Amino acid sequence: MTRVLKSAALSFFFTLCLTAACVTHRLHAHSTAPAPRELFTAVSEQVSAIRRANFATAYGQSSNDVQQKFTLPQFEEMVRRQYSQLGKGGRIEFGRVDVDHLNATVEATLVTGDGLAESFEFALVAEGEAWKVSGVRAIGLANQTQRAIGIRL
Fold first, then answer.
1. Which residues contact residue 27 at a Cβ distance below 8 angstroms, ignoring those fewer than 6 apart?
2. Pairwise CA distance, residues 78 & 55, whole Å
3. What angle do CA 101, 106, 108 make, to 5 degrees?
4. What are all long-range contacts of 122-125, with beta carbons under 8 Å and residues at least 24 apart?
């Protein structure tokens, strides 16, 4: 390889790396934290679809990562077995919200008509123009003498 060819290849890769760093910086600089209501809506819509037993819609509101790990029937089975509480009617009270660029967590308490309250932490990821649910973790039974801080739906 000639000296000129080596210099050209090195310059090309240096320019490519610099361009990638600039684009990444611009994306980070221009992204703004979402309004909590956006995140609440994403969670509420998925829970609503699960309550209607519309698992195709709930699956579509899941992140690409979830959809790559689970088929629709596997997703439905997982929700029915591990997160059956999400399918019960009642209201949703939203609490703590944490946003870290393209990822967010939202605490939600689901209160059923019989007064049972269970708290969950929903993980969300920004995909394109939408926030998608990438995971759910049951936190446990909530104390209904203390209302969740946030919005009630």
1. none
2. 11
3. 170
4. 122/43, 124/39, 124/42, 124/43, 124/63, 125/63, 125/65
pLDDT digits (tens, 9 = 90+) for 51-106: 999 999 999 999 999 999 999 999 999 999 999 888 887 899 999 999 998 999 99
Tell which residue, 110, 116, 92, 119, has the closest CA to residue 37. 92
Q: Which amino acid is at 144?
A: Q
**What is the 3-state secondary structure of 12-59?**
HHHHHHHHHHHHHHHHHHHCCCCCHHHHHHHHHHHHHHHHCCCHHHHH
Residues whose CB is less than 8 angstroms from the CB of residue 133 and which lie 6 or more positions away in sequence, other chains included: 42, 43, 46, 61, 62, 63, 66, 122, 123, 124
Q: For the whole model, what pTM was predicted? A: 0.72
Q: Residues in the chain, how many?
A: 153
* CA–CA gap between residue 135 and residue 121 (Å, rounded): 8
Alpha helix (H) residue ranges in 31-128? 36-51, 55-60, 64-69, 72-82
